[in-house]
Design brief:
single chain; mainly alpha; about 80% helix
């Protein structure tokens, strides 16, 4: 039994590393999305500040929120959605790996694959939510 356990360990490690790289790619995309979204929102806020001060003689901080909403200007950065997008790959990988312990290799791989699908769904949902203007 000991020899069999040792012969399975490299296969388990290969599956974990392979799926770990896929989860790491999702994590990289989430971090890049966070950085780019913050940069984009900051640029939009600066452009709105410039527009309001030059055209309407308003200050962005003291402007009526109804006016800003009517102009389509949002000053909020969706930190909760961006943070969940970064945490999702890490948490799902850990949960799938823990649930896969002491299971056959194919079940472990299936759990990791299902977890990857969950991460994809969460990422797409959060991205759509943020692009739709949600926080």
């Amino acid at each position: 039994m000991s020899a069999r356990r040792l012969s399975v360990a490299p296969a388990v490690l290969a599956v974990l590393v392979g799926f770990g790289l896929l989860y790491a790619w999702d994590l990289y995309e989430a971090i890049a999305n966070m950085v780019l979204t913050v940069q984009q929102r900051t640029a939009e806020i600066d452009a709105a500040r410039e527009f309001l001060s030059s055209t309407l003689d308003l200050d962005l901080e003291t402007a009526d929120p109804a006016v800003l909403e009517a102009l389509g200007i949002s000053t909020a950065i969706p930190w909760s959605a961006l943070t969940m997008n970064v945490l999702a790959p890490v948490l799902v990988f850990v949960v799938a790996a823990m649930l896969g312990r002491r299971r056959p290799l194919w079940q472990r791989a299936l759990l990791l694959l299902a977890g990857l699908a969950v991460v994809a769904v969460v990422t797409l949902s959060l991205t759509a939510y943020v692009r739709a203007g949600g926080l």
